[in-house]
Amino acid sequence: MIELVEISKSFGSVRALDQVSLEVAPGEFVAVLGPSGCGKTTLLRAIGGYIAVDRGAVRLSGHDVTKQPPDARRVGMVFQDYALFPHMTVLENVAFGLKMRGENKVTREQKARAVLELTGMDGTEARKPSELSGGQQQRVAVARAIAHEPDALLLDEPLANLDRNIRLRLRDELRELQMRLKIPTILVTHDQEEALGVADRTAIMNHGRIVQIGGAFDLTMNPADPFVSEFLGLDK
Amino acid sequence: MTEARRYRWLTAPAAALWMLGVALPLLLILRLSVYSRGEISGARQFETLFYQPETWTLDNFVQVLTTPFYLNTLAFTIGLAVTSTVLTLVLGYVVAYAVYRSSPAGKVVLLVLVTLPKFTNILVFVYGLKMILGPSGFWPVVAAEVLMLLPYAVLTIAAALEAVPFSLVEAARGLGASAAQAFWKVTFPLSLPGTIAAATLAILWSLGAFLGPYLLGQPAQYTISVEIDRQMNHDLNWALAAALNVVLLGVMAICGYSLTSIRRRLA
């Protein structure tokens, strides 16, 4: 369970997050949708612990982690550029989180192999990230993010750099995987089709606030304001 | 491939420059190092250089490799170079890391500060150091060498660090690595090839150390380069100077080759 309680964050005079509250239930998949600069990436980085919020609280599985650094939070994050370690093999990448948490070599390789199988990347253990295609790198990044069984999965535009065909397939695979693992998940995207197509609920952000949150049907039938209907392309 | 071959002639100017500026002088030094000078001294040795019977000898090398004074000087030169290189790398890495983590404006300020000594004439710079560092000796020599090498090391290492996306560090932190672990497991190994490139530059440069030892050192701190200068300009024994030079070149080649192959294996 991910709980955000009225978190705010300003960069100089810009309010990137303005009293944002959000709850993601265990096993729920929430998409955060909005134009660039709306604060959606800041929201994700606040949950991951990469930025300290000015006010409010972040709770993961009931624990208050507001003041904790990223390594003290049990979070799995997939970055837009995947951020795979280029000097490590696929297996070493996926086992990294387990290694940092003190698992012994046999256990962590066993777990890493299992996760790679889950993401359909078994057989690539010994390769370097540079030897993989974009879609394969994305799957390894997902495998790495879930290997240490995190309390939350955070996805920062994980499909943005992929071709349309593979994007749709990976989107569905991601959702299937998330449903199997029952990890509360937040997907940040600027693509409304991606958000509405995959998430249980979609939060629409603008100027650091969540303007409206709901399922695809809710949002399209009852847009809260002109911004939402325009952003979802309902005006046409 | 064929395209590349077709335009190979475009490398001709560079090749000509290399032949004239590097290969030819090197060849002359090699010849001079096995030259038996007899009674001739100074620049006149060049008049009878090639294909003169009875002017070929290995005596110069025998002299260099059997005289304790030259061997000690060589050992000191290597020791000084290794000391300067290690200190340059440690200091250079710290400064380069500060550059890496600075804001864009901070980067500019730091890099200007680091390269500032290079805007001074090198002699003025070393004499200035002499006034600050006081009596001559080993550590003033090392200080001068390190300060001369530092800008190159910082620029090389900073470039290597800048190529490491910070998202990799964030990913490592998110996976449970402390700041120190993220540095040693991710940032450092990825910057290592560039750091070794800086080491190569520093060791080759400092093996040829001349100004620091000459101006800030006692005779005990004289290097092979200082001795080469003495042989050329005081004893007018160019042949021996050339032999000393060839031995130094050999040491440089070994250092350069081993560091480069380590870097290749890492990259």
Features:
heterodimer; A: 236 residues; alpha/beta; Rossmann fold; 2 domains; 8 helices; 36% helix; 25% strand; globular; B: 12 helices
Summarize the structure in words.
- The complex is a heterodimer of chains A (236) and B (267).
- Chain A is of the alpha/beta class and 236 residues long.
- In chain A, 36% of the residues lie in helices and 25% in strands.
- In chain A, the strands form two sheets. Chain A has a six-stranded mixed β-sheet, sandwiched between helices. Chain A has a four-stranded antiparallel β-sheet with strand order 2-1-4-5, with helices on one face.
- In chain A, helix 2 (90-100) packs parallel to helix 4 (134-146).
- Chain A is globular, with a radius of gyration of 18 Å.
- Chain B has one domain: MetI-like (MetI-like fold, Orthogonal Bundle).
- Chain B has twelve helices and no strands.
- Chain B starts with a helix and ends with a helix.
- The model of chain B has no long low-confidence stretch (mean pLDDT 90).
- The chains are: A alpha/beta (236), B mainly alpha (267).
